[in-house]
Amino acid sequence: MRAKAVATGAASAFPPAESQSSLWDGYFAEHFGHRRAARTAFAAAGVQRRHAVANPLVEDVSGWSTGRRMARYLEEAMPLGKEALATALGAAGVAPNELGLLVVASCTGYVTPGLDVRLAQDLDMAEDLQRLLLGHVGCHAALPGLSAARDFVLAHGRPAALLCLELPSLHTQPATDDLEQVVVHALFGDAASALVLEPSDERDGSSRPSAPRRHAAEPSGEREPRGLEIVEIQAVTDVGAAGHMTWDVTDLGFRMGLSRRVPDLVGGHVGPLVDRLLGAHGVARSDIAAWAVHPGGSRVLDVVADRLALHETALAESRGVLADHGNCSSATILLVLERLRRQRDLARGDLVVALAFGPGLTLYAGLLRSL
Questions:
Q1: Which pLDDT does position 212 carry in this prediction?
Q2: Is residue 108 within 8 Å of residue 170, measured between CB atoms?
Q3: What are phi and psi of 18, to 5 degrees?
Q4: The whole model's pTM is what?
Q5: Full domain range(s) for residue 263
């Protein structure tokens, strides 16, 4: 009998949304001097709408100090994080005080005590709860967070939860002629997304806790899709390319650097990383039933699809998340996985590969199995 760590509940929460065209017409067109290149970048981003706690059509935060932005981060992050986490726990049928580990990933805001402490208190989690905060990691943070949660579940036989919460709308930067900044401001949106992992044995395809639960959670009333076993997660970092994706703390919030070379740099590593991950388990790319790829931008998806020789429909969920929510940094890959679980008819045993990319330049790949 082999122990498994299985994702059994997922949920997301969003602030209100605005269309990409409204954001351009109502704010960014003037912000970037009505430049044709800027308009083209917005139109080519692959984004149709985005969510924002700081809607630039309502309030302009580009001149705010970092301290003021951090105060707003706490105000907005708590209800979004609580909604996503509580809903995911409910979907899994896990009571908050059953959790053994809470992992929180965020690179868009900081406060001490952190969101992990405050959410544990608000949701009445156990006193012996272990917590892990992944701060300033960037867009790929969900996968190392998922790896830590998986290892905890396998080692301790208790449930764990991962919450990725990002509010990039709080970091609108002052007007500039830098086209890289135009691209950044065309891509990012706010989101909170949570995933619950439980211990399971080999006896059937459903999650089967290794120890009896102390409390029973209220049923959600909605049939959950199949669980996903987290089989393995691997990574590669190209330290020589570190300067091509950055996230700097300034006096006016956090400023992202995003080189136009990033898609090609990702493309150079994604094939070998995927093959190394799959080779460790004796499977090939053709054995993969579904792909969950972080939509860092439409060109990133194009390059990944090309380098992995994927059919144009393989990244439908990734492109759908990009269109509906934008790039939500660490939360994005969880949004893609959630959409994939609900929209694809995965059979028991189907394999899924998750890919995420971020500063470093770092790539993470995860192998998951449908149960």
A1: 34
A2: yes
A3: -130, 150
A4: 0.93
A5: 228-370
